[in-house]
């Protein structure tokens, strides 16, 4: 078993829902028309729902976040003032508002602390799907240039390229054993991004590669060594091969660019794409020279361009609608002057400064994220040389959401979640379920020896929980009183784990202000009451034992660990108690064997005639005392349904004769117990007693989910279902376990 003290507190601690959101952020960017807007809306809703704690994170780390926050905030405020001063329509605030809203990603990612590996998976999926879509669009003849769902080939090519470059920064995430089978994804994503960019026929995007190569090779080489260098070398080799092949058209496009540029500078030709771009750049500089401080106005580029042409200061341009300078910085200088240009540089320099600072700090897992951030900024600077990235909506939203998500994840990595001081575990159903939750308390006590573990259960199970040395305080539902929220608040717990969901407790915990409330995604009310959600179902959950399932609730604490089944019993921490009535029963000679025929309707029961036959067979050994146990009501049922069992001379009927404390002490002192999947079975196994658990081979009540876990536990079940298991009266699965099978196990104990 991996000791709790050696199990790392992993940073990827969010619920599956938050991790899926992180996956969707890049994955929907190029593969869905409205994907980015949808994710941004969801993140904004999360931000507003958890406004106080999320806002507190900005204040807590203001020294680090001030540059980035103020850059986008100032851009919005200046845009708002200019809209009012220039009497522009409200739609002019759409883009600046999206940039401002993007800041919410920092706090949301820091607060949710999602599993970061999903971000890298999302990036890889993004570029591979973009490449596949680009190939289909071009090679099927659907489009001349690949444009994905963006309806803009240049934007599609640029975003696909930067996604592939960022994916190459996540090589460390694929060292995780869960991702080792797909450790080829970053290399494939890098190639996919390059392919999508080539098929988009975007020429300007390639100007970003030299800018990106500097940080990628400098810091990436430190992180990944020769593996990253080999990956980049292979990619460049394939690009060179594509350039050399006439069928790709790359060489022709590059040659055409050089020819058109030469024609412009020699003859002033503006009849081609490059000539027009260069003339627009010259026009932008003229506008800046005429209006250096505030420019001609963000919505006046067309009018200013026409005025320059009318004055004869520009060559006549082709009859096309030109609405920007085809260069980020020049467009800001011409339409917003030095003020807008300064804001643009702030939106590049502030995040770049933050990420460079993260790279200079000791690596706690944030270096790969920071490197991706540097690559993102450098790529957008390169893209801005031949396009206006902050004019179109999609690239600006992509930039701010990716940027701020990376910052939030860097913070989450460096500043781990607060260590719990007092943890409340709720398990308010049956004794067997309570017993199977005690290993969770044991593991938490090993991880946080200074923390207080409070266990909430029903009164009738309190005596069992009190025997667990890992539980510091037992709290019962009955003592909470009518004002449950007030009682929970008085406990002083900062974390609550709803191992058994109850609506009223969930709402009370929220009203009590318990800071970290962890629940299952299966309950709708948990989405309204819990601030941490965990998916307890799915293929992985279906294979886990009930005692293991509760460990999934530790993900929001930064713990991604589930103990092996064979080691769960080591965490029970139960010590046998003494009780006068139990001592009186156990004082007699011989092997004391408990038969517990009934299960209070909680499990599929072994036939009573089998219990009778087993007891009769045990009667052949005078050293064996058969103790039949159960509640008073179960004793009455046995008297009616199996009187011959209670009439056997070697059987002692103890049904209803011991309270729970006495019954627990009896189980702790007995020499063995036979029962179906019920509380006494799990309690005996947890106390280290020899037990035989009797189960049907049907989900979800089979041994896979409910087997007794203990050092001397044996669980029996038929090899396959009888086909009529839905009706307990017709099911023959339990009957297939013969008394002789059980007797053979009992004899092996001696």
TrEMBL record:
Q: Where is it mostly found?
A: membrane
Q: Please, which domain of life does this record's source organism belong to?
A: Bacteria
Could you tell me which residue ranges the O-antigen ligase-related domain spans? Answer: 190-339
Q: Which UniProt keywords apply?
A: Glycosyltransferase, Membrane, Transferase, Transmembrane, Transmembrane helix
Q: How does it sit in the membrane?
A: Multi-pass membrane protein
Molecular function in Gene Ontology: transferase activity
| Membrane-crossing residue ranges in chain numbering | 20-47, 59-83, 95-112, 119-139, 151-174, 181-199, 228-247, 328-349, 369-392, 398-417
Q: Which Gene3D superfamilies match?
A: Glycogen Phosphorylase B (3.40.50.2000)
Subcellular location as annotated? Membrane
Q: What is this protein called?
A: Glycosyl transferase family 9
Organism, scientific name? Duganella levis
Species classification: Bacteria, Pseudomonadati, Pseudomonadota, Betaproteobacteria, Burkholderiales
């Amino acid at each position: 078993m991996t000791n709790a003290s050696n199990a790392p507190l992993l940073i990827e601690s969010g619920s599956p829902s938050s991790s899926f959101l992180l996956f969707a952020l890049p994955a929907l960017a190029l593969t869905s028309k409205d994907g980015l807007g949808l994710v941004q809306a969801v993140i904004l809703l999360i931000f507003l729902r958890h406004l106080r704690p999320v806002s507190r994170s900005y204040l807590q780390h203001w020294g680090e976040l001030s540059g980035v926050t103020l850059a986008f905030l100032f851009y919005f405020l200046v845009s708002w003032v200019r809209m009012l001063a220039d009497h522009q329509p409200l739609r002019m605030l759409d883009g600046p508002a999206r940039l401002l809203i993007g800041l919410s990603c920092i706090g949301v990612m820091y607060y949710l602390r999602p599993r970061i590996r999903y971000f890298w998976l999302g990036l890889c999926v993004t570029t591979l799907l973009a490449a596949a879509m680009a190939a289909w669009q071009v090679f099927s003849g659907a489009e001349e240039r690949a444009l994905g769902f963006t309806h803009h080939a240049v934007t599609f090519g640029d975003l696909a390229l930067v996604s592939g470059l960022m994916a190459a920064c996540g090589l460390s995430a694929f060292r995780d054993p869960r991702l080792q089978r797909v450790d080829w994804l970053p290399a494939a994503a890098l190639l996919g991004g390059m392919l999508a960019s080539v098929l988009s026929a975007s020429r300007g995007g390639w100007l970003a590669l030299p800018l990106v190569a500097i940080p990628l090779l400098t810091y990436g080489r430190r992180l990944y060594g020769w593996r990253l260098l080999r990956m980049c070398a292979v990619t460049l080799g394939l690009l060179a091969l594509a350039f050399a092949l006439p069928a790709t058209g790359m060489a022709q496009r590059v040659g055409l660019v050089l020819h058109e540029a030469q024609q412009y500078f020699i003859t002033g030709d503006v009849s081609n794409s490059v000539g027009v771009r260069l003339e627009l750049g010259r026009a932008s500089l003229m506008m800046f020279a005429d209006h250096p401080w505030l420019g001609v106005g963000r919505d006046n580029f067309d009018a200013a361009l026409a005025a320059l042409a009318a004055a004869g200061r520009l060559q006549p341009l082709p009859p096309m609608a030109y609405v920007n300078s085809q260069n980020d910085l020049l467009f800001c200088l011409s339409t917003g002057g030095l003020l807008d240009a300064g804001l643009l540089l702030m939106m590049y320099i502030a995040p770049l400064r933050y990420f460079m600072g993260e790279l200079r700090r000791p690596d706690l897992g944030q270096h790969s994220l920071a490197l991706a951030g540097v690559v993102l900024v450098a790529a957008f600077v390169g893209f801005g040389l031949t396009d206006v990235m902050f004019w179109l909506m999609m690239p600006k939203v992509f930039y701010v959401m990716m940027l701020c998500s990376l910052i939030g994840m860097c913070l989450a990595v460096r500043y781990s979640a607060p260590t719990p001081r007092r943890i409340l575990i709720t398990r308010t159903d049956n004794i067997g379920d309570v017993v199977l939750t005690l290993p969770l308390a044991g593991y938490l006590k090993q991880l946080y020896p200074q923390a207080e573990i409070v266990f909430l259960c029903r009164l009738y199970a309190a005596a069992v929980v009190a025997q667990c040395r890992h539980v510091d305080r037992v709290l019962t539902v009955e003592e909470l009183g009518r004002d449950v929220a007030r009682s929970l608040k008085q406990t002083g717990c900062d974390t609550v784990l709803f191992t058994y969901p109850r609506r009223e407790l969930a709402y009370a915990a929220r009203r009590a202000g318990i800071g970290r409330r962890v629940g299952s995604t299966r309950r709708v009310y948990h989405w309204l009451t819990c601030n941490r959600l965990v998916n307890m179902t799915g293929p992985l959950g279906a294979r886990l034992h009930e005692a293991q399932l509760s460990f999934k609730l530790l993900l929001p604490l930064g713990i991604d660990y589930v103990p092996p089944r064979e080691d769960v019993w080591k965490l029970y921490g139960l010590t046998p108690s003494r009780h006068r009535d139990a001592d009186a029963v156990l004082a007699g000679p011989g092997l004391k064997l408990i038969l517990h025929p009934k299960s209070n309707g909680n499990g599929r029961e072994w036939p009573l005639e089998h219990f009778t036959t087993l007891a009769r067979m045990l009667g052949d050994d005078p050293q064996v005392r058969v103790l039949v146990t159960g509640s008073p009501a179960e004793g009455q049922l046995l008297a009616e349904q199996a009187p011959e069992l209670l009439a056997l001379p070697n059987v002692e009927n103890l049904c209803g004769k011991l309270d729970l404390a006495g019954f627990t002490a009896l189980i702790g002192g007995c020499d063995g117990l036979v029962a179906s999947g019920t509380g006494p079975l799990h309690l005996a196994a947890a106390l280290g007693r020899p037990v035989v658990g009797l189960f049907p081979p049907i989900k979800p009540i089979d041994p896979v989910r409910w087997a007794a876990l203990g050092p001397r536990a044996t669980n029996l079940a038929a090899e396959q279902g009888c086909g009529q298991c839905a009706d307990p009266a017709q099911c023959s699965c339990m009957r297939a376990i013969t008394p002789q099978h059980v007797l053979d196990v009992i004899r092996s104990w001696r």
